[in-house]
Structure formats: structure tokens, C-alpha cells
Amino acid sequence: MKFKPRYLILFVLFVLYFGFRLYFSSQTPYFNDDKSYFSLRQIENIAETGKPISNDNLFQSDREFAILPLYYYIMTPAVLFSNEIIAIKIINNFLASLLILGVYLITSQILKNRKISLICSVLAAFSPAYINQTLNRLNEFSILIPACLFLFYFYLRLENNPKTINYIIPLTVFLLLSSAASIIVILGIVFYFILNYIEDKKLSRYEIEYSYFIILFYLWIILIIYKTSFQEFGHNVIFSNIPTNLIPYLYPPLNFFNILTNIGLLPLILGFVTMFSYLFIQKSKAILFFIGQLTSVFLLLLFKLIRIELGLIFISLIFVILFGKFLQDSLVYTKKTKFEKHINLYLIIISIILCLIQVVPGYFVMRNNTNEGFSSEYIKGFMFLNNLSSDSIILGLPKEGHLITYFGHKKNIIDTHYISIKDSDQRYTDVIQFYSENFKIPALRILEKYNASHFIVSKSISEYNISKISFIPDECFKLIFNESIQIYEIRKDICKIQNEK
Amino acid sequence: MKNKELNGILIVIIISSIMIIGFHALRFSNLNTIHDYEQYEDINLSENKFILSNSQTNPDLIYRLVPFLLSFINIFLIYLATKKITKNSLHSTLTTLVFSLSPINLFLHTTYNQITFPLTLLLIGITLLLYNKHFFGFIFLLTTLFVNPNLIIIVIFCLILFFDRSITKNSITPFIGMILSTYIYVIFNNSIKPGFSFYIFLTDYVADFSTSIGFSIFGLILGILGIIFSWSKKKDIYLFYVSIISLFIISLIDKRYLIFCELLLIYFGGFALFSILKTKWKSDELKHYVLTIILCGLIFSSGSYIKRMSEIGPTKPEIDSLLWLKSQNLPGIVLSGFEYGDFIHSISGYEVLTNNKYHRTSKDQIKIYETNLIFQSRTLSKIVTFFEKEKISYVWINKKMKNGQIWGNSEQGILLVLRTSKYFSKVYDHGNVQIWAYKNPNIYE
After folding, report:
1. What does the buried/exposed string (b/e) look like for A234-258 if buried means 16 or more CB atoms within 10 Å of the residue's CB?
2. Residue B49 reports pLDDT greater than 80
3. Are residues B191 and B79 in the same domain?
């Protein structure tokens, strides 16, 4: 393969982006959310035993995890080679940085214009939604999004290049084993077929045959992994068994302002223009494909079947691609006008504007992400739990559950992995009720119900509109840790509630 | 029959045998009890050994060996019948392969139920009719009715299909006949229960989730693909489509009809596999992968079905609890779910309020309705009145009842009353089985 300058530019961009991410991510030794510590537990368990955790022994009741494990396996080498958290952050950010390559490949395939492709890659890389979810969080989005982009690229080449099949099959297996959210891609392909049918365009045999493969494989994987969960939780499994009270918060309706802040004004407006232009005036199968994907995301968001964070990432990336198409079309148009000689100037101006309104805010999002990580003082409280006896059961807020198990190695009563909690609704209500109780007797009843030995009070209770725990201090609860969080021990010897007969 | 065809059918029979033997091996290693609570209707406990109540023999022979032997005959008959319809041995072999990997095959041939033997007779009748042995064909169809009169609708469907093929080709009469018989069946059986939803379909009609009689997901997908692929021949086989819909509607009333609905769907599943194999694909890799996924899906569905059914009750602690109850030798009736009625009576000797026979034969099912109301009630006076009226002495509760079958949590309905009222005492609690005794308040006071 002949070396071309554009590869060097792309490589430099990739290294710069990776460097940026790593710099900001390494500013804090901790992650930004509790779920990252669930992932970390899984990764460490794989490093120790070769298998992810299936039966959780750090939960107050019995529970089994239903997870797609590929992401955890990919991250495991980091733990095997180094005990430092930075090793995991390096791999995570390296994988997430592959987004630049993915967007570049797709846009160069559709637009055949490397300058615009580079602009689009940079734009996509600084998408606030993507940075928020992947910079300092350990979740499967870091591989899901780049893998989806590579899959889109190979899919677009499938018709004219049959050899692509050799790459797309392993990539599909990789994607489907990474996240159940790959339903977005499958549904997107279905909508693409529908759009082609409406537009009276013929689909290639490869596309149809590939769709059989991806749909059947997805069904099989989902059936194997989530069958037990479905038997236990019924249709709630579709909403990850999230407590009913939490659904409006975790699946808020999609609003225009949210989209605008995550995508940016220019790509949003011009992306829409391209979309309508290619739906009603011009024809392009590739653009139809992305409109299909966009429809899939909007529909899944509408029915609250995917989290809004993930939906926004997809929407922002697709709009960047559509925006790229607009740029290319405008360049073609400009070439036909008197401004032909000033095309490069036009591109430079566009780049500067985009830099100001997209990349600079992206930089600030990165910086803010550093400050959002858990503080050492906060984590110190959870580490204190290690001093308690091994059979202790700790009551904390749902978002503190994974911290209790990861740092304190103690059983929690609830955490945010609701899909594996049988009575998540009841537990959530009980825990929130506990913190809002005015009197100690009902609070003690809840503690006894779950056989809790300790409970945690942190500033996070304010997120539930609770300013103060009314029933403490009290002789029934002994304060054993009082720094950034407070840990109370329940004095069962003097405060036991008897079951009424 | 050519050697190639014979090899094909032998391979299918071997696969089916492995499945069935695998089930029994797992069942033996896990529980070693007769599968399915319903079968205890015909079993009695005599000197600590289970015997068939009508023949005084060991039930293992009839409950385990006979269905296994019938599986060979049924698979062979399905092969012969489909070969006559399709005139293609590969299609027939693939149909029998889909059948052998289906949960229906396992249900029919691992348990002795009221369908397996009549199905054999029915298949013999159909095959004879297809091979123009009309007299013997009709005789076997009639014999099916003598063995299980409930299958009258299936026999009518078979006759309609026969008349359509040989006498009234492309006429609307068979179609009307099928619709009319379905309508009459629905009208005569108190119509369909309301509240059918996609979720209920998945849990009650798909064997991969929790039901014992149901489609496998991949069998269902293959069947639907088969219907789509065969749509170009719809003129010849439209009655098959109508039969599938009719049988599905009837299965909403009597679940056992789903077996016949699935048998038809298996035919289309075989056609889908045949089409995928025979069609030239642009990418051979994709074709191989798709076939592999389908086969893996079918095998995994059956595998998980085998595992689940091998662990399903009756369990050893349940039998122990009833042996303990037998030793009490006190008067009274035992209250439990109707599914467990025969099982409780068979082992403990106690009379039960409801059982499967009552569920099948009672028109209004008032006792089942009342029992369900009492199970969900927390009103002590209502519960006591019911217990007095029905002379109930014990309540028998197992793990499944507490885990969603009747109650969702330990404080729901009567469970709270049992725990807190002085009229009830827990007399047995071991291995997730509880027996509560009711103390007559008159005696108590």
C-alpha cells in the first residue's frame, strides 16, 4: 500500500485526540459514574477467574447477572498487565478514539472528499454526548460506537465489494456480543429496506442476505443471554427492569434543546436540510441508509427502549455525516460559480467556524468531565467499609450500590444494575422511603426487612429532595464514620423491632 | 425407499432419540420423579412405590418407554406424509429434522400424555389417506376419536384437507367448513378468555420462556419464513394457512391444540430450511452462517427446554412433605392450586378441593374461582367462612406458587393471614414446601 499524506494527517489527528482524551481522563484517579465500578468488578473477576461474575455474592439477596461480556473481556488485558486504573483508562480511551477513523472511513466512502472527511471526523470526535459517556466512564459505548461506524462503512461497501463480507461478519459478531443496544443498527437496516422499497430502489442480494444473518444472530444472542431475565421480570426486561418511579428520569422525553446542545446548531440545521433534500429531491442509497438509522434511533427513543445518552450519540454522529454531505454538495455548487477559485478559503472559514462552535465547547466538556469524577474524600468513606465484618449489609442510595461492593467489598441492598434485581421497584421505594422517613420505627422496619447492619448518608440524598435525615442522631444508630459521607451502624441489641403476630 | 433417504431419516431418529434419552438422563440425575403433576391422576402410592391405578404396574414403563418407542413411529410417519405432499425427500427429511429438534417432540415423547398415542393413530390415518388407502385411513381416524374424543376438531380438519385434495379441488367449501368448525368449537367452549397480549403469547406459547407446550423461537421464525417462501404456491396450500390460524385460535381455549398448530408450522419450517439450502446465495459464507445459526437456535432451544423440564416438579421435598401429611391421618381436605390436586391426593391420600379433572370438566369452574379469591384475600372472616364451608384442614404451598404462580411476594393475600392469624399454624416447612393447618375457631375457643 502506497503511503499517502492523508493517512499521516489522520494518524496525527487520532494521536492528538487520543492524547487529549487521555490527558483529561487521567486528571482524576476515579471514574465519573457508579456503573464504571460494576464494569471494573466484572473485568477484575475475568482477570482472576477467566469468567465474568454470574452469581453476585455481594448483594443482599440472590441475583444472577445477564450481561454481554465481550467488552469486559477486551478490557481485561489492562488489569492483567497493570493494577493501575490508568491502564484501563488507556485502553478505554484508545478504543473510543477509533471513532475518528470510523467517521473518516464512512465520510470518505460517501463523499469521496478527504478534506471534508477530516472535518467530519474532528466534529464527531468532539460530540459532547460521546465525550460525556466515554471519556471517564467504563461502559460498552467505547466499543459499541466505533464498531457501529466500521460496520456502517463495510455495509456501504457491501454492494460493490463482495470481499467486504470477510470483514463484516466478524465485526457483526463483535458488535452483537458487545451490547444489546446494537438493535439500533438492525432496526436501522430494516428502515433502510423500507425506505428503499418506498423509493423503488433495488436492494443488492448481499444486503438482503446480510440482513438475515444479523437479525437471526441478534435474536439468538439475546435469547441466550436475556431469556432467564425475561422469565423473571417479563416485559420489564425491555426497560432494563428499571423501577417505575425512575423511568421518567432515566428516559426523559427528547427535547430540541437537548439535541441542539449535543449536536450543535450548524450540523443540526444543515443535516436536516440534507435529509429532506435526499428524501424528496435527490437520491442516494448511502444517505437513505443513515436516514434509516436515524429513524431507528428516534423510534427507539420515542418508545423509551434505549437510553437518551446513547440515542444522542447516534443522532449527533449521523448529523455530522449528513452535514458532511451538505458541505460536499455546497462545494460542488460553488465550483459552478464565480467563487470556484476560493474553495479552499471557503473550507478554511467553515473549519474555523466549526472549531469555534463545536470543538471549543467539546474541549470544555472534556475539562468539565474531569471535575465530575468521584473525589478521593468521597471514595474514602466507601473504603472504610472494608473495616466492617464480612457479613455486613449496607443500605445506600442506588447510585452508591456499586461503590459499596467495589470499594467496601460489602453487600448492598440496591444498585443501578436493576436488570438483575428481582424486586427492584420495591427495593427502590423502600430505600428512598428510608431516607425520607421522619421517625425511626418505620426506618428500622425497612432496615430489618433487608437485614441491613449499616447505612450510608451522603450529600447525594439531596438529589431526591431530602435535605436532612430526620431520625438521626438517635441511640439506635451509632455514627462510625463522619467525613465526606457518614456511616451509621444499627444497634440491633437495643433497637429490635418484633414482628407483630 | 433409497439408501440416501433411509440414512436421512435414520439420522433424524438418532437425533430425536439423543434428545429424549438426554431428557430422561437429566431427569434421573436431578429428580427421578414422574414428570408433570398432571400424570399423578393415574398413579397411586402403594407400599412406598408408585403404581398405575388401573393396572397395578410400574408407571415408568408406560410413562417413559412407550412414548420413546412411539417417537420412532411418529417421525417415520411424518416423513412419509410430508414426502407424499411435497414429493421431495429432502424437504421431508428437513421437516422431520425440525420436528425432532422441536420442544413439541420432546413434550410428546418424554411424557405419557393424552395426545401422543392418538397422534400416532392420526398420523397413520393421514398417511394411509395420502397413499390412497382410504378405508383403513378412515378407520384409523375414527380410532383416534375413540382414544381421545377431544381431538374431533383435528379429525374434521384432516377430513376437510383430504376432501380438498381429492374431491373438491380449489373450491370454497373446505375453507367454509374449516372456519365453521372453528367457530362452532369456540362457541361451544365458552369462547376465548380475554386479555391476550404479546407478553402472554411469549410466556404461554413460546417454549423458550416458560411453557411446556409451545413453539421454539427459531421454530416459529422458520415457520413464518416458510409461509413467506411458500406464498407463491398459496393456491395449493391455502388450507394449511387457514388450519394454522384456526388451530391457534382453538389453542387459546385448549392449549393442547397448539401441538397440532406447531406440527403444521414445522412443515413450513422444513420448507424454509429446504428453500434456504436450495436457493443460490450471492455469498456462500452468509448462507452457511445463517444455516448454522438456525440449527444452533433450534438445538439450543431444545437443550434449554430439556434442562428446564428435567428440573420441573414434582421435587423430592414436595413428595416428602406429602408423605409427612399422609402420616398425620386426620380428616379434612387439602387446599392448593388445582394443578397439584392429583399429585397431593395420589401421595397423601387426602381429598383435595380442586384438581385437573375438575379444571377440565367443570363448566363454571366455580371452585377454582373461589380458591383464587381466597388465595388473594386478606379478610380473615372470608377465609374462615370458606375453610369452614369446604371443610379444609390444610393448605399446601410450594416454591412455584410463592414465586409468581399465585403470589408475587410473601405478604400477598392469604400468605399474610397465614403468618399472622391465630387460626393457622405452620405444621411443615422444609425444602421450600410449607403446610399450614387450619384450627377450627369453634374448637379453638
Report:
1. bebbebbbbbeebeeebbeebeeeb
2. no
3. yes
Closest residue by Cα to residue A348 from A118, A185, A149, A144: A118
Of A353, A371, A389, which marks where a domain is finished? A371
3-state SS string for A202-224: CCCHHHHHHHHHHHHHHHHHHHH
Subunit contact A169:B286, Cβ cutoff 8 A: yes
Give the strand order in the sheet containing B433-438.
B351-352, B333-335, B392-397, B433-438, B424-430
Structure confidence by residue, pLDDT tens digits, A425-475: 889 999 999 999 888 888 988 888 888 999 999 988 988 888 888 888 888
Residues A144 and A190 in one domain: yes
A386 and A323 co-located in one domain: no
Complex ipTM, two decimals?
0.82
Work out the minimum CA distance from A8 to partner chain B, whole angstroms.
35
Buried residues in B33-70 as b, exposed as e (16+ CB within 10 A):
bbbbbbbbbbbbbeeeebbbeeeeeebeeebbeebbeb
Does A355 share its domain with A396?
Answer: no
Angle, helices B217-229 vs A205-233, to 10°: value is 150
Count the domains in chain B.
Answer: 2
Q: Which amino acid is at B23?
A: F
Q: Domain of residue B146: give its range.
A: 3-311
Q: How many domains does chain A have?
A: 2
Q: Which of B197, B290, B301 to mutate to probe the A interface, most A CBs <10 Å?
A: B290
Q: Which residues from A are below 8 Å from B422, CB to CB? A: 501
Q: Are residues A304 and A391 in the same domain?
A: no
Predicted confidence at residue B444, as pLDDT, reads 45
Cell of A500: 407483630
> H-helix or E-strand containing B112?
none
Please state, in angstroms and as integers, the Cα–Cα distance from residue B49 to each residue in A167, B12, B56, B347, following that order.
62, 36, 10, 10
The answer to whether the beta carbons of residues A289 and A155 sit under 8 Å apart is yes
Same domain, A470 and A386: yes
CA nearest to A158 within chain B: B283
B297 plus B322 within the same structural domain: no
> CA-to-CA distance for A51 and A64, rounded, in angstroms?
14
Q: Which residues of A touch B312 (CB under 8 A)?
A: none
- DSSP letter for B378, please: -
- Are A61 and A138 in a shared domain? yes
Contact B286 A210 (CB under 8 A): yes
Same domain, B275 and B372: no
Distance from CA of A222 to the nearest CA of B (A): 11
Instruction: Provide the CATH number for the domain around residue B407.
Output: 3.40.50.12610
| Selection from A330-334, B61-65, B122-126, B179-183 with the highest mean pLDDT | B122-126
Let me know whether B253 and B372 are in one domain. Answer: no
- In a domain, residue A495? The reply is no
**Which range of residues forms the domain containing residue A445?**
376-490
Dump pLDDT digits (tens) for A34-90: 999 999 999 999 999 999 998 888 888 888 888 899 999 999 998 888 878 899 999
Residues B330 and B264 in one domain: no
Cβ count near B384 (within 10 Å): 17
* Residues in chain A whose Cβ is within 8 Å of chain B: 162, 165-166, 169, 204-206, 209-210, 212-213, 216-217, 219-220, 223-224, 227, 230-231, 234-235, 423, 426, 500-501
Residues A218 and A284 in one domain: yes
Q: Are A322 and A391 contained in the same domain? A: no
Burial class for B23, CB neighbours closer than 10 Å (0-12, 13-18, 19+)? buried
Query: pTM for this one?
Result: 0.84
Residue A114 lies in a domain: yes
Do the beta carbons of residue B178 and residue B157 sit within 8 Å? yes
Is A209 within 8 Å of B289 when comparing Cβ atoms?
A: no
- Contact yes or no for B283 and A216 at CB 8 A: no
